[in-house]
Amino acid sequence: MVFTIFTILALGGAFLGLALHRFWTTREEARSTILYAEIMKKYFAWLALRTIQMSRKASPKAWWKYLKTLPLWREPALEKWLFIGFYGSFLYLAASGFFFAVFIPRGLFGYPLVGHVMAGGLFAVCLVIIVLFRGRDFISVPKPAHLSLSLLDPRKMGITPARVRIWAFWLFVLAGFLLTLSALLPMLPLLRTGGQRFMFEFHRYSALASALAAMVFAGLELFASLRTGTPPGEGM
Amino acid sequence: MSRAGRTSLRALGGALLAVLVFAATAPGQTAAPAAAQSPKHLVWDGNRTMPVHLIPLRDENDELIVPTETDPWPYSARFTCGPCHDYATIAGGWHFGAMTTANSGRPGEPWIWSDTKTGTVLPLSYRTWPGSYAPEALGLTTWDFTLLFGRHMPGGGPSEPSDEEVLAHPEARWSVSGKAEINCLACHNRSARQDPSEWAKQVLRENLRWAATAAGGVGEVGGMASRLKETWDITDGPNLDDHLWAVAPSVKYRTVDFDSKQRYFFDLDYRPADDRCLACHSVSPKDEAQWNADADVHAAAGLKCADCHRNDLGHAMVRGHEGEAAETGNRAAASFTCRGCHLGENAAGEKTVVPGRLGAPFPKHTGIPLVHFKRLSCTVCHSGPKPKDGFTRVRTSRANRLGIYGVATWSTDAPAVFEPVYKKDERHRITPHRLVWPAFWAKRAGKTLTPLLPEVVEAAAGDILEPEERISLTLVALSQVMAEDEVPVLVSGKSVFAPNVDGGIDALEEAGAPADRPAYWGIRKGADLLPLVGDFDPAAEDKDPAVETRIQEFLQALGTVAVRPGEPAILVRKTLYRFVGGYLDISEAPAELAGAAGPGWLMDGKLLPLVPEFDVRTVAAKAGTEQTLTEEQVGLVLEALAQTSGDAEVVYISGGRMFRRAKDGSLVSDDHDAAGPVTWPLAHNVRPAQQSLGWKGCTDCHSGGSDFFFSRLKATGPLLTKKVDKLSAASFMGLGGLFQRVFGLSFIVRPVFKVVLAICALVAGALVFLAGLVALGRVAGFLDQR
User: Fold this and answer.
1) Which pTM was predicted?
2) ipTM value of the model?
3) DSSP state of B701
4) Where are the domains of chain B?
C-alpha cells in the first residue's frame, strides 16, 4: 500500500514537474506575473486544455505514425535491434511490474511473471551494452567547485535541462544496476527471509527510481526535440 | 449378598431417608442442594508436579466400589474423576463434542465407513465438513455409530447419548450395554496396561460401560452384553440361565492396586504419552516396513504430541493450524502453529508471537523466495511423505482399524487413503492433504445424492453380492473330506481359489496357466493341481475301488452345504453318482444330462454347476485386484435397487465417477460432485530439514516433470472398471499444468541466466561507479576536462 501511494505520488509529481517545465519555458503567460498562485492557476488551466487537446489527437493511428518517425528505425541493424530490445523490455517490465504491484494484491504471477523475468534479462544485457558504448555521451562536465555558500543556492548550481537529462541517464543506469542486483541476489542461496523481503522491496523502489529517471529523461528529450525540430532520440 | 440385591436395598433405604429429610427440612431446602452440587474445579497452584491419584473408585450410581465384593460394577469416570475434574466441561472438548459444537473447525479426518461387500466407503462426521455426511441424515443412530467406530473413540460424544436419544431409539441396546462414558484413561493413563485393543473388543462385545475398566487394566472384564437379551439390566447381575454363551459382563478388579481404604492407584499423565495419541492417530505408508518407518521430527527431538496440542480442562485441543486463534478465540493457539513457534508470526505474518517455544529453532530458509511463504503452508515442504508419482498410499488408525491386536486381523487395506495431495485450504494456501475417494450407493434427486446404508443395499441385492460366499461354502464343505496335504480349490483361468481361515477365499495366480482355462473344481496337493474327480471309465472292470469311495465322500460333504439348489451328484462319462439313503447310488445318466460332467446339483433332471457361472466369472475377474465389485454386479444391484426405490433413480459412486443404468440397461458413468475425493489437511509426520522440499534446490518442485506438480492420481474404488478419474497434482492445486511445465522448464536455463545477470550487474555497477568517480574527480578538481 505504501509503495502504491509512493508510486502514484512520485510518477504524478514527475509528470507535473515536466509539464511545469514545459509551461514555464514555452508559455508567455507564465512570465506575466510573479505571483506563484497566479502562475499555478494558469499552469493548471493550460495543463487541462493541453490534456484535452492531446486526448483528442491521440489515437492508435497517431501513435503508430509517431513511432514511425522515431530515428530508431534508421539506425544500423545492430543498434536498431539493441534499442528495440532495450525499449521493448523496459516498457514491458514497467507495465507488468507496476500494473501488478498497484492493482493486483497478489502481485506479479503466472505468465506475466515469466515474461517479466525474461524481459529483465534482456533489459540488463541491453542496458550494459548501451552504457558501455554510449555512456561516454552522458558524462557531464561540472566545473571544479569552490567552497562557498553559493554552493547551496539552487539558482547557482547550474541545474539545466541538459544536465538533468544526464543525471536522469545515470540515475537510470544506477537503478538498472540495482534492479539487476536485486533480481539476482534472491535467486542465489544467500539471503534469508528477511533479506529476501528487503530485496523484494528494494527491487520495487529501484524500479520506481528507474521509471522516474526514464520519464524525466524521455520528457526532456521529447521537449528538446520539439523545440529544435529534431526527432527525439537523435541526440543519443 | 449380590451386588444387585445390595443396590435394591440401598435404593429403598435412600428413598426412605429422602422422604424423612424432605419432611424435616422442606422450608429451607432451596439453597442447600445447589451448593452441594456445584462442580469442584481444581485450580493449579503453580507446582509443576503431578499429584498422586490414589482415589476411591465410584460406579455410575456414584457408589463406592469395593473390589472384593461380589459382582462389583465397573468404575465410572463421571463419578470417579468428575468430583475434581468437571465432567460437563470436559465433555465439550474436541474429542467428545462433535455432536454439540457450533464450530466445526477446520476439516479433519472423517470417520470412514468401509464395507467391502457392498463396496461402500462413506465418510461420516457429526461436524459439517465438506464431503462428509451427517450420520443422523443417513439414519444412523448413535448406537450404530458407536458400534461402527467406537473401537477408536475415547468414549463420550455419540457413545454417551442423552437420555432423550436413548428413549427415541428403543431398538438400540443402551440399557444392556450402558453408555461409554468419557474414557479419561484412554489418554491419561501412563500405565503400560492401557490397552486400546481391549477397548475395541469390549465395544464390539457391547460392553460399553465396562470398556474403560477393561482397557485401563483396572480390572478384568468377562462376558458379552451383545449376547444378552435386551431385557437384561446391570442390576440383574449374572445370567443364571447361561454360564457358557450369554454370559453377563462382570469385572474382576486388580485388587493389588487398591489400598486398605479401597482407594485405587491410577498411574496418570497430565500430558498424555504419544502412544496414547497414536493409538487413534497413527498414519503409516501402506507398504513401509516397521523398522524403516521414521517418527515425526518433533517426536525424535523429544517433544510429546501434547507439548503442542495442549488444552485446558475444556479439552479444546490446540490443533495447531494457522487461523485457529481467530477461529476459536484462543489467542495462545497462535504460538503453537509452525509459524508461531518457529518464526514468531501469527496467521497474518505479523511478528506478534514469541517464537522458540520448547527450543524451536529459527529456520534460515536461505534462498527461498517470499512467494512461497505467502502461498504455501509450512507443511507443504516439511510434512508427509515426499511427493511421488501415484502418491503415497497410507493407512490411518481410524480408517483402516490399525492398532487392534489379537488373533484375528483387524486392520484392513480399504479404504485407500493417499497423501500428500497438495490443494488450497480455507485460507487459500496450498496445503498437503490426505485423500479418500468415496464409494456408495445412493438415491438421486436432481443433483442431490442421498447415500443408502449398506444393509439396505445388501437386502435388495440378495445373492448378487455373495459369489465369494457361495464358493467358499462349497470349498469349506469339500475340505471336510480332504487329506491333510490336500486343499479343495476352484480353478478358473490363471486363478486358483482356496478357502481361508476367515471363511472367505484367497486367490492365487498360477504362473504359466492359460487365461482362458475353463473353470473346474480340484484339489491342490503340494504344487500339483488335480481335478476333484479324475477321468476314469466307470464301466471298466479293473477300475480303482478307492475312486468310488472318494466320490461318496465328496457327495457326503456337498450334502452339508447349507443352501443348495438340489441334491449333490457327480457325473462321470455316462455314469451318475448320487448319495441316496446313506449309500452311493450309481446309475446310468439320463439322456438329458448328455454333455454334462463333474460335480453338480441335480435338479429337475438337470445337473446344475456347484456355483453359478456368474459367481465364477465374478471372482475370476476380481482375482488379484483390490476391487470387490464388477460392472456386472453393479448393474444387477442397481436394477434390484430400482425395484425397491420407487421413482427415485439409484446410482453408485466409485473411482470418482457416478454410475447409473442407462435405458438400454447398460452401465454408464457421469461426473458428479459427490464422486469427488474427500480431503483433509495433514500436518504430520514432519520430516527433518534435509528431507524437506527445496533442500536440493528449486528443481525439487520446479522442473519439467516434477512429482510435485505432475504426478497423477488414479481414482480408486471398489468397482473394477476402467472408467475412473485421473487427476494431476497441479489440478488439485487449482494451477495450470502447462504453466507449471513452462515455468519448470525455465529452470533449465536459470543457471545461465544467473551468470548473465551477474556479469551485467558487475559491468553496470563498475560503469556507474566509474562515472561517479569521474564526476567526483571533476567537482573536486582532481581531474581535468579533456
Assistant:
1) 0.86
2) 0.88
3) T
4) 1-38, 50-277, 283-437+680-733, 441-675
